[in-house]
C-alpha cells in the first residue's frame, strides 16, 4: 500500500529500494515521532495524529522520487503536502519556524539511520533525491507557516476590531443620553450600561493579551457522530454511479470515525463533482480511504488536464483568491473547494492537491479519525 499523493497503486513501478522504504514506513515514522518529542519542546504533548500530520504522504512521495525514471523528481514536486504541513502547524500547535525546520531535519536522519539499520544501502542519487525532497519541503512548509500565522493574526485583529465596535458604540450612546437627561434614575441606568460595555471591552482586550494561538478563524459548527467512512463512501459512489455511469472505483476498508457526517458527505460530493467536471470523461474516478497513525486519508483521483502549479493554493482561497483562478481557462476550478478545506480544517485536518500531466489530479483530505479533541482549533477559511 502506498500513501503517495499521486495515488499510485502499482508498487511494481517502484524500485526495490523504494519498495523496501515503504515496508519500513511505520518503523521510520514511529521512530521519527519519538525523536521529535525528545528534541522539539512544542511537540512533547501533541496527540500522535496531529504530530504525524502529512508526513506519511511525504514519505511515500520520497520513495517514488528515488525510483529511477519515476515521474516525480522530489517528494514535494507537484503537490502541496509540505505547505499544508506548515499551515497545520500554525493552526494546531505552538510551533515556531525553528520547530518546523527541526522536524524535517529529524526526518532526514531518521530515514538514513533506520534504512542503514535494516541493511538498506542507498546510492548517491537516492541520497540526493531524499535530501532534495526534504530541503524543498522545508522551504514550502516554512513559507506556508509564516503565511498562515499572518492570516490568523489578521483574521484575529479583524474579528477583535469588529467585536469591540459594539460595546464601544453602546458606551458612547449611553454617554450621549446622559448628556441630555436630568432623570437621576435614567442617568444611573445609562451609567450602568457604560460600565457593562467597558467591562466587556476590557475582557476582550484581556483575551487578546492572553491569547497566544489566535483562535479567531471562522469555522464550521460540527455535529460529530461515530460512523463508518467506508459505508458513507459506498453511498456516495452509488449516487454518482447512478448519475454518471460506472466509472467510480472505491478502494476502502472499514474505518470508524468521529466526524460530522453531513459535512464530510458534502465535501466528498464536491470532490467527486469536480473530478467528473474536470477529469477526462473516458477515464475512471478513483476514491481511496486509508486509516494510518490515528488519521484517515481520503483521496479522490481523476485523469485529465492538470491544475497549473501557480493556481494550486488559490484553489482553496486560504489567504486570497488568486486572479489566475478567476481568469484562467479553467473558470470554475475551486467551486466547493473552500468548503472542503473548511470541513478538513474544522476537524483538525487539511486538504492537499497533487496534479501533473503524467499522473492526473488527486485531492487528499487527511483528518484525525477522532475529531472530538480538535473541534475548537482555528481555521484559515470559512464556508
From TrEMBL:
User: PROSITE patterns from the xrefs?
Assistant: HIS_KIN
GO MF terms held by the record:
ATP binding; phosphorelay response regulator activity; phosphorelay sensor kinase activity; protein kinase activator activity
Q: Which GO terms describe its biological process?
A: osmosensory signaling via phosphorelay pathway
This protein's source sits in the domain of life called: Bacteria
Keyword Nucleotide-binding annotated: yes
Q: Which residues belong to any copy of the Histidine kinase domain?
A: 159-371
Quickly give the catalysed reaction. Answer: ATP + protein L-histidine = ADP + protein N-phospho-L-histidine
The UniProt transmembrane annotation reads: none
Q: Which UniProt keywords apply?
A: ATP-binding, Kinase, Nucleotide-binding, Phosphoprotein, Transferase, Two-component regulatory system
Enzyme Commission code(s) on record: 2.7.13.3
Pfam families xref list: HATPase_c, HisKA
Which protein are we looking at? histidine kinase
Q: Which organism is it from?
A: Nitrosospira multiformis (strain ATCC 25196 / NCIMB 11849 / C 71)
Q: What is the lineage of its organism?
A: Bacteria, Pseudomonadati, Pseudomonadota, Betaproteobacteria, Nitrosomonadales
Amino acid at each position: 500500500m502506498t500513501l503517495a499523493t499521486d495515488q499510485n497503486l502499482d508498487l511494481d513501478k517502484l524500485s526495490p529500494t523504494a519498495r523496501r522504504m515503504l515496508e519500513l514506513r511505520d518503523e521510520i515514522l514511529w521512530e521519527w515521532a519519538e525523536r521529535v518529542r525528545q528534541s522539539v519542546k512544542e511537540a512533547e504533548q501533541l496527540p500522535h495524529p496531529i504530530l504525524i500530520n502529512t508526513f506519511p504522504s511525504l514519505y511515500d512521495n520520497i520513495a517514488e522520487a528515488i525510483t529511477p525514471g519515476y515521474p516525480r523528481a522530489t517528494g514535494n514536486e507537484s503537490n502541496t503536502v509540505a505547505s499544508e504541513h506548515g499551515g497545520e502547524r500554525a493552526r494546531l500547535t505552538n510551533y515556531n519556524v525553528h520547530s518546523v525546520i527541526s522536524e524535517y531535519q529529524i526526518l532526514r536522519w531518521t530515514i538514513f539511520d533506520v534504512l542503514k539499520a535494516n541493511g538498506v544501502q542507498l546510492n548517491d542519487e537516492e541520497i540526493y533525491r531524499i535530501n532534495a525532497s526534504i530541503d524543498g519541503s522545508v522551504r514550502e512548509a516554512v513559507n506556508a507557516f509564516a503565511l498562515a500565522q499572518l492570516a490568523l493574526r489578521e483574521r484575529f485583529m479583524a474579528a477583535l476590531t469588529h467585536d469591540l465596535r459594539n460595546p464601544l458604540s453602546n458606551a458612547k450612546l449611553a454617554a450621549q443620553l446622559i448628556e441630555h437627561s436630568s432623570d437621576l434614575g435614567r442617568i444611573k441606568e445609562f451609567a450602568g450600561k457604560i460600565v457593562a460595555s467597558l467591562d466587556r471591552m476590557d475582557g476582550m482586550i484581556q483575551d487578546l493579551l492572553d491569547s497566544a494561538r489566535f483562535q479567531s478563524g471562522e469555522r464550521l459548527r460540527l455535529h460529530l457522530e461515530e460512523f463508518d467512512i467506508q459505508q458513507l463512501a459506498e453511498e456516495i459512489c452509488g449516487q454518482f454511479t447512478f448519475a454518471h455511469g460506472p466509472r467510480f472505483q472505491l478502494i476502502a476498508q472499514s474505518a470508524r470515525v468521529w466526524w460530522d457526517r453531513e459535512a464530510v458527505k458534502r465535501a466528498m460530493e464536491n470532490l467527486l463533482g469536480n473530478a467528473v467536471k474536470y477529469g477526462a470523461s473516458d477515464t475512471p474516478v478513483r476514491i481511496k480511504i486509508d486509516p494510518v497513525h490515528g488519521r484517515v486519508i481520503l483521496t479522490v483521483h481523476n485523469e485529465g488536464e492538470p491544475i497549473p502549479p501557480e493556481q494550486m493554493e488559490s484553489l482553496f482561497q486560504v489567504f486570497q483568491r488568486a486572479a489566475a483562478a478567476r481568469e484562467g481557462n479553467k473558470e470554475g476550478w475551486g467551486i466547493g473547494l473552500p468548503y472542503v478545506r473548511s470541513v478538513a480544517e474544522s476537524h483538525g485536518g487539511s486538504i492537499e492537491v497533487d496534479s501533473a500531466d503524467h499522473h492526473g489530479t488527486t485531492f487528499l483530505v487527511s483528518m484525525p479519525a477522532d475529531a472530538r479533541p480538535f473541534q475548537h482549533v482555528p481555521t484559515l477559511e470559512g464556508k
